[in-house]
């Protein structure tokens, strides 16, 4: 008798939950149609109104938060930012934080009626900052993961541009091999899971990256750098104006340098800074530590 392989996007949750010592929550894919006709997709974990909204970084997708969502054990929404996961690509190639934040604000209005603990990693963190500044009624605490305004955008893109020089493969195993060769993804099992969520099989049988950044990585980072240069100190002023409590989570082996953290503390002296033993993708390399930080923010809101 043939064995039917589980190809559902939640196939890994039971094994992850067992490893982490948590229960398996109900989980579903949700989506909304934006005013311009694009689709914004997300994952909803748990029952009841979401308390946490999670925003991933460039080139990732909502499933990067699976372990954190399991450890939190609270109702949560993880959004696929435009151009990533199951959300529509933008024809204008504009994936700047301000543009992405408009989508997220609309999603919060529909999916998360109560103020959220808003957690953003990398590009998702810059997006979360805009949401918190422009829609303070939607955010009760802001958690930035290994990102601050004005972070040098030269170092990381050099590696990413080389990695995404190849955008399609004969199989997912080939994609896993390339990711591991570049040091992405941790164990092979972790990398296989990440590749499964971040690729799709084309009609011709070849496997390609799902997210738009794989095709426009150079222009995407060039645009972000240009936006930073044009804004001067505006991003810092915007972040400093956020009325919700702010926590910066720094991966000890991530992208932030001491000078970046010093600038953050100078502009937001009342904000908390927590350093954890993790790489840039803290949600994947130290999900327990990040979940504990987010749980602290959630508990502060219920006292």
What's the end-to-end separation, in Å? 56 Å
Give the number of helices.
12
Order of helices and strands: HEEEHEHEHEHEHHEEHHEHEHH
> What is the overall silhouette?
globular
Percentage of residues in strands: 15-25%
CATH topology group of the domain at 13-151 and 233-300:
Rossmann fold
Low-confidence stretches: 1-6
Secondary structure class reads alpha/beta
Helical content stands at: 40-55%
Name the strands of the widest sheet in spatial order: 1-2-4-3-5-6-10-11
Give the name of the CATH superfamily of the domain at 13-151 and 233-300: Alpha/Beta hydrolase fold, catalytic domain
Average pLDDT rating: 90
The quaternary state of the protein chains shown equals single chain
CATH class of the domain at 13-151 and 233-300: Alpha Beta
User: What is the CA-based Rg, rounded?
Assistant: 18 Å
Instruction: Label the CATH architecture of the domain at 13-151 and 233-300.
Output: 3-Layer(aba) Sandwich
Largest sheet: 8 strands, mixed
Task: Compute the number of strand runs.
Answer: 11
